[in-house]
Amino acid sequence: MTSSVLVAGATGDIGRRIVRELLHRDARVRVLTRPGSGTAAALFGGDDRIDIVEAAYGDPSALTTAVSGTDVVLSAVSGVRPVIVHAQRALLAAAVDAGVPRFIPSDYSSDYRRIAVGSNRNFELRREFAADLDAAPIHATSILNGAFTDMLTGTAPMILFGRKKVLFWSSADQVLDFTTKDDTARMAALVALDDDAPRVVEVAGDRVTARDVARTMSDLTGTTFGLQWAGTTGTLGAMAAVGRRLSKNADETFPAWQGMQYFVSMFSGQAQLRHVDNARYGEHRWTTVRDVLEAHLGNQLIVGTASSATRASGTTTVA
Ligand SMILES: NC(=O)c1ccc[n+]([C@@H]2O[C@H](COP(=O)([O-])OP(=O)(O)OC[C@H]3O[C@@H](n4cnc5c(N)ncnc54)[C@H](OP(=O)(O)O)[C@@H]3O)[C@@H](O)[C@H]2O)c1
């Protein structure tokens, strides 16, 4: 039975959440961090349920020692080819060498398996590594969760809050899969502790169309949010290709053009989840798109009220 989990990339946004969820379930956690990375001790030092091990991805014997004796290697690393393909290959080789029975790659994405070649760099890197994983003598499980719902209020510019519009490409009725970071982390911990997990576990905290999102925003704000056609997924893909050609830093993980490619994959339906199994580990209240938008609007209201109160009291802040 799985009880000891090595988490690579545990110092990252998703990694930390996964470690928290594993500890809730009484797992023994080993955090793998790169020498010089610097944050693992501050984040996890002093917790006797967590061991911290340092190893460079370019040092096979140190990596093998680092993963030895664990039941599953769970990756939550982030980056482009040097990380998703090269570092994960090194981690996989170490896991196989050390006889670790199971491996979970850093996927946490929409379904990258059927997307068109050249349409989404980050997804194709996952697909490339998945081929290595499929060929390795290890029990592998990928977690596919769609886009992080959290991004709807930040880095994914689909809702134009100020202009009261919701953008769509090609079809306002295309189903889009969303799961929050916390729900994804919870699922990753459950999968890590499940010796019988299949090759792919698909979950979606919510499945909505752009039309649903516009309706939800109208409902929550009491103001009509209209749908705005922003072109076809074909034109968006072409714009992403131009952005990619003009970009100066090929190693940036989430440049704007990659965000466009994410929308191409989602709005074309190519990356839609087909085998969602939210009940695999029993009933759970999944955070919906509405929940996330409601919380965001509530926060904005609080910030707005606080700044009008500050203005009313004549207080000024010098930055
Ligand atoms: N579905 C979605 O919408 C969505 C959105 C965002 C992210 N994601 C995915 O979620 C996963 C985790 O992302 P995150 O945002 O949590 O990542 P993150 O916070 O940027 O970092 C994850 C960790 O990766 C490790 N790392 C960084 N550079 C590395 C390198 N060159 N070689 C090896 N390890 C390196 C670091 O750990 P150490 O320094 O401790 O070694 C870092 O803490 C990624 O696969 C990402 O693509 C999905």
From TrEMBL:
One Gene Ontology molecular-function label: oxidoreductase activity
Q: Using the record's annotation, list all stretches that form the NmrA-like domain.
A: 1-225
Keyword list (alphabetical) reads: NADP, Oxidoreductase
Highest taxon of the source? Bacteria
Name under which the protein is recorded: NAD-dependent epimerase/dehydratase family protein
